[in-house]
Amino acid sequence: MWSGFAVAMAALLVAGCNRSGRLVERDGKPLVVTTVTMVTDMVREVGGERVHVEGLMGAGVDPHTFKPRISDARLLEDAAAVFYCGLHLEGKMQESLERLSLRKPQVWAVSSGVPPDRLLAPQEEYEGHHDPHLWGDPALWAETVGVVVEGLSRIDPEGRSGFEARGEAYRKKLLALDEWARARVAEIPEGKRVLVTSHDAFFYFGRAYGFEVRGLQGVSTVSEAGFKDRAQLVKFIRERGIRTIFPESSVNPKAIAAVAEEAGVEASAEHLFSDAMGTPGDVVERRGESYDRGTYIGMVKHNINTVVDGLKPGGGTP
Ligand SMILES: [Zn+2]
Q: What is the CATH number of the domain that holds 166?
């Protein structure tokens, strides 16, 4: 039998301490550090009041090009647990996160919760990596909740039943969101489901809801779109009779606006949230429903409503 002391020590070891061996807390709660806003939101949903969550990337931040500051490195070092997306989404951070996970067992990529056969095939321009934009499909994103439940339970074993209950409730909300999205997308005739955006962030979205997807830039925003790609995209938009194309919140909208002008179509007045959500508290009302675009659920509702209203016959930006 383990003595109470040994159990406490083991819990402390699992719970993640900083270099001095002290469990780092904020407001008396374990410090949990996250990267992109979608992961931050999920960890807050699952962790509830038991953990203190700090996200490194805020609204409008492009994770492909994000470089951590010295203060971010310190937070990662101190964290009781770290959750990130993975699949090279956090392009400039991936290596340091992998190195951190060798020294520190409490580092988890939420994408590890998705069965490999549901990941989208590597894109040529993405150097053989899988497409990381999983959250475009809420039902797929729901698969990552288990990683957060398990990770938080490791650093706070007493909280396990609470994390499991909150995780399950959140998972159900994501599945309900998917149902809602399907019903809205059905308003666009199948032949009109063509989504043109700033970069290739919507392949999972497209697979889930039957859209053909074209991005001006590749899966990562690191490389700029060349002239040939742009000319091809303009031709594609004209040929397919696409009415509206969409800028993204974390990518400069100028390039997509120029494409719209060249093709003689409308650039949506409202951008889509691709790799970052809105600012927390950005509550909007649409179709008799209000939602916070600074949450993952609000972000998806905004994107679906914007796409459907932009593409359905007789629709328009409200
Ligand atoms: Zn992206």
A: 3.40.50.1980
